[in-house]
Amino acid sequence: MQRSPLALPFPALLPIAGVRIGTASVPYKAWTRDCVTLVEFAPGTAVAGVTTRSLCPSPEVELCRAKLPGGHARGLIVNAGNSNAFTGAAGMAAARAQAARVAERLDCSADAVFSASTGVIGVPLPIDLAVEGVDKAHARLGEADFLAATNAIGTTDTFPKAATASAIVGGKRVSINGIVKGSGMIAPDMATMLGFIFTDAAIAPALWQAMLNDAVASTFNAITVDSDTSTSDTVLAFATGAAGNTALATMDDAGAEALAAALTDICRHLAILVVRDGEGAHKLIEVTVTGAVDDASAKRVALSIANSPLVKTAIAGGDANWGRIVMAVGKAGEPADRDRLSIRFGNTLVAAQGAVVPGYDEAPVAAHLAGDEVSIAADLGMGTGRARVWTCDLTHGYISINADYRS
Amino acid sequence: MQRSPLALPFPALLPIAGVRIGTASVPYKAWTRDCVTLVEFAPGTAVAGVTTRSLCPSPEVELCRAKLPGGHARGLIVNAGNSNAFTGAAGMAAARAQAARVAERLDCSADAVFSASTGVIGVPLPIDLAVEGVDKAHARLGEADFLAATNAIGTTDTFPKAATASAIVGGKRVSINGIVKGSGMIAPDMATMLGFIFTDAAIAPALWQAMLNDAVASTFNAITVDSDTSTSDTVLAFATGAAGNTALATMDDAGAEALAAALTDICRHLAILVVRDGEGAHKLIEVTVTGAVDDASAKRVALSIANSPLVKTAIAGGDANWGRIVMAVGKAGEPADRDRLSIRFGNTLVAAQGAVVPGYDEAPVAAHLAGDEVSIAADLGMGTGRARVWTCDLTHGYISINADYRS
Question: Which of A114, A292, A325, B158 would staple A298 via disulfide (CB 3.0–4.6 Å)?
Fold first, then answer.
């Protein structure tokens, strides 16, 4: 698979005390690269998570949902090459068996072991390979090699994706790393996004979960490649506490805002990296909607624009087709008034008050659209609601990746 | 534009007493073909209509919405080559001026003149050409030539689309014709669907509107090419009463059910013809959802499947990718249970009870998918709700039509 033209280099990540990683290879597919990732967390590690909204989730997602209320994690196991989704009782048995083996190896409760799988669907995860993968990865547990882990959780990602940040919390410097895979496809099945975030900050699980929920809403839940939702999407965030700060319990504690801001930055960076690896993407598109009746309405309008095939193909063609933006605003079903609507491409106002601006000059817009980062802004003129989402263009590459093979 | 591989021949239409048609050419674009269509209806003609749900509609749509409650029509004027959408006050002035000229020529109230326009957006309909078009078309008014009208309302349609039916109402034989344009694109702008239905039946406007609402829900509102909604979509239905039946007033009147059934048949046929002319379409896809908690839920799930780019590309590739159907059911947000879900392609059960069926043989599915009419069925196992929608595959042709040019 050709590296995305929008790829960014892998960043220099910070060490995170309390996190050990081992990766290993087992033949889920005819791959020689590592495809099983085991992460061991120090006792006391808090965990927060957000899973797909799909009502047909994988067993791993169901297990995450069941375990997250416990708030603590000692282990994470990730399989690439088999998503274990839509595999009935056999798949659930395999997921449970693998988590049990991790618990045995790490000497902890299976309730503290979190699982995620990505890859082919409809084929139960082979229990023997899944258990063998745990043993092999456990034998290689050591200082956290985040690049190795990022490569091992990937499927058809065209580049490894990570982000890092730090913050001062209660007088201590804390570090946060995030890694993510998606949204390449593992032929012939679904794109799945898996994101994992690691910090050495000490924080109560409930507050960590609240911070993650907030961060995800404006980041991972504000990206779209093709409007399709995987059965396996999962973001898990682990806080080991090894930085030694007094554990954060409320947003009023010193440093809580800083940690939340760093977490949101990480999530935004990771989310945009996923779009940058969107199938067939040649342009990153930022859609900003302002002037909606409220933020939720703004987000629905922004997603209507970002998911519109006609908008996405226009951007692919470098076409300043503001009529398609009007169309997408109109179809969103949110309060809008054609005669108050204004539209910008880049810094150029194209349409306002229900019509193209007088003396509209397309040249600066065409120059903006020729770049690989495009911004579209729509102001609805109705209120103060605003939202920002990211997507990519819709190209022949998307069709080729998704249609031009037989399973 | 190459004729769609899914095109059907133009049918032999019935004459409709009380309808006269004239078409004419004016230079909205550099076309020599006719692009203005004037229809004159006998006094007493009832009208019903359904317009786009877009909140940013064209002036023509706004005028239709305002006039429909009157229930009667004497004239219809259709422009192709300029949609007059998003043109502010200038566009509204042009639409009003054109309708006024029709009213003058037909010696009727402007409230009885209905308008529709399709084509480039953001450019106000030129008033002088619009009025000239009325005069020219009026000079050519004569026996209804539905093929000429179908060609004149088209934009980049690759074949003319029509349907016909008849019914016995109150002992009289009545005829219904329907013509439709869409969903080719008029570069560089939006696809617009315009449908016009003509019958010589006599019927009260309120009942005619109720019949049309019912018919549209399961036909025009059950098709999707790319999930995008035009600012100008309009279906208008005219009943001249010239057949001489006692005017239908309620569904209990003799023949009302027959007329409603014929109307629904016409609408379904026209709607599927639009999908057959979908941009880049090589396969017509029928999606049936059963076992939902209710019909509305079934329709949302069916549209989630039909709008999924991953499903549509899989069908384009002839790929029996049932995992993408699971994904689309899961993302619909409707009550569903992975372990009760079953999926068929054609007549072959592929997955049931949360997993692929034992001994699944892909050969008959691959044979079905190799044809140009594909059926997908999902049973949710939750209740008795059902729905059927139609779409087409997503191909390189769609990208080429919508991205590979500059405006």
Answer: A292
